[in-house]
Amino acid sequence: MRRTLACLSVLALLLASPTTGPTPATAAEAGGSETALRKWWAALAGRYTEPVSVVVMGDSNSEGTGATSVSRRWQQVLQAQLRARFQPPGVKGAAVPYISASPRMYLVPADYERTATAGVGESSYGLGQRSATIPAGESVTLAFVGRHAKLHARKGPEVGRYRIVLDGGTPVVVDGAAAAGANGQVIWDSGMLPAGRHTVRISRDPSTAAAAGAVYPEGLTTYDGDETAGVRVIDSARGGARVGDFIGLNAWNWHVAFGALPAKGLLILPWGANDATSGTTPEAFRAGLESLIVVARGNGFAGSVLLVHMPKRGTASEQVWADYRTQMQAIAASDPDVAVLDLRARIPDQGGDDLGVYFDEVHYNDRGQAMIADQIASAILPR
Questions:
Q1: Are residue 191 and residue 257 in the same domain, yes or no?
Q2: Are residues 240 and 288 in the same domain?
Q3: 374 half-sphere exposure, CB direction, 13 A CA radius
């Protein structure tokens, strides 16, 4: 007998204390078998001995456009809710476990800990395909609060030498040259650091041969006592993206970095806003989601998948949006480890926003960000 995912969430919250989470979604708003999230629950149960990751892919609504600060993006709100209930005692956890070298949000929050000089460009490697292109004389600085960090970057025949400076200290030079292109490489590890705020400045080292090109940092994985335990929500989204941008030949850009993430228990996929307004048919949308899941599983992902049907983008066709939901439900019906959460049943479309949750025609303000996090958190609670 198949039950909805939301029914499980109702049971979980009835057994929990009133302060552990938001009101659960109703039965009409989620789909998939009653055990679709069992692999996520199992990974979460291992949080005392290894960090469990929730990875979020998608477009600008996944990356957090519309939030006034990093802490108010729905990914961070979700992480805070999960940690409030499940973080092991004594484990603090990095506030932003992955900091992109080239965030693609429209209006990046002022407190996003990434600064760049004027000549830094964009490229498409690593988590979210959001790497920076740093030519000679330019730099990107990433900052974090914690005790440990790892820098992910591209290597290849056209890549120059990376110059990495931690907290203004002695530069470390890493040769980015490789016979074949290799994305998602951990090219630098800070080792254990004193607790506190740290900066990592990345540039193209002057010793780079004239024939070599720029350097391509992807992002910084950060830790604050959660190297071996705890719950982490990893940002692997990219503003403006469609699901087709992450499959086929494009999968090569991000899959290695994705595969390097520890204990990936849950993959959240809230796609559709850009697909629906750029001609992606419902059939192609389904094929794209299925291909993305195949790529993720082929690179070490053995957890559960949550497909999220978002409220309709203002200019999207009603029929196409409804058909996308049908295709998501079809994927869940054929895959025992895929569930669907229908947020449209709880959050109004932009055109009918009587709750004050939108920043613009597409994106969500702080209230909307928190509402998304609340609904996802209630849906994924262990049974």
A1: no
A2: yes
A3: 13
Sequence-distant contacts of 352-361: CB under 8 A, at least 24 apart = 358/66, 359/65, 359/66, 360/66, 361/313, 361/314, 361/315
Q: Are residues 290 and 250 in the same domain?
A: yes
Q: What is the pLDDT of residues 345-368, one digit of tens each?
A: 999 998 889 999 999 989 999 999
Three-state DSSP at 342 gives strand
H or E element that contains 247: none
Rounded Cα distance, 45 and 282, in Å: 36
End position of a domain, from candidates 202, 223, 244: 223
pTM of the predicted protein model:
0.92
Burial class (CB in 10 A: 0-12, 13-18, 19+), 283: exposed
Residues 34 and 51: their CA atoms lie apart, in Å, by 25
The count of domains in the chain is: 2
CA distances from 53 to 32, 100, 131, 306 (A): 21, 17, 21, 14
Integer CA distances (angstroms), 210 to 90, 136, 205, 217, in order: 50, 10, 11, 19
With both helix axes pointing from N to C terminus, report the angle between 366-380 and 74-86 in degrees, rounded to the nearest 10. Answer: 40
Over the stretch 178-217, which tens digit does the pLDDT of each residue have?
A: 999 999 999 999 999 999 999 999 999 999 987 789 999 9
Q: Where are the beta strands (DSSP E) in the chain?
A: 30-31, 52-56, 98-100, 114-116, 121-123, 131-133, 139-146, 148-155, 161-166, 172-175, 182-189, 196-204, 217-223, 231-235, 264-269, 304-309, 338-342
- DSSP letter for each residue of 94-151: -SSSEEESS---SS--TTSSEEE-TT-EEE--TGGG-EEEB-TT-EEEEEEEESEEEE
262: CATH: 3.40.50.1110
What proportion of the chain, given as a percentage, has pLDDT over 90? Answer: 87
Residues 6+ apart with CB under 8 A from 246: 57, 129, 254, 288, 292, 295
Answer whether 133's CB lies under 8 Å from 123's CB: yes
